[in-house]
Specification:
about 70 residues; mainly alpha; about 75% helix
Length: about 70
Amino acid sequence: MGAIALLAVFGETLNIMTMGGIALAVGILVDDATVTIENINWHLEHGKDVRTSMPRRVLGLHPQDF
């Protein structure tokens, strides 16, 4: 919704390229969230508590993992 509002502010239209870009951005966001949740869950399954699993998730992922 925010992207569409920004397009309206700048006077742009929703064409095929714009819709493709929005779809790609949403897809990347969902994929990153899935990887994050899976990594935190892995730490929880291996006996870590929630407070130590969260920072370990950040340290355990690198850009090449995506």
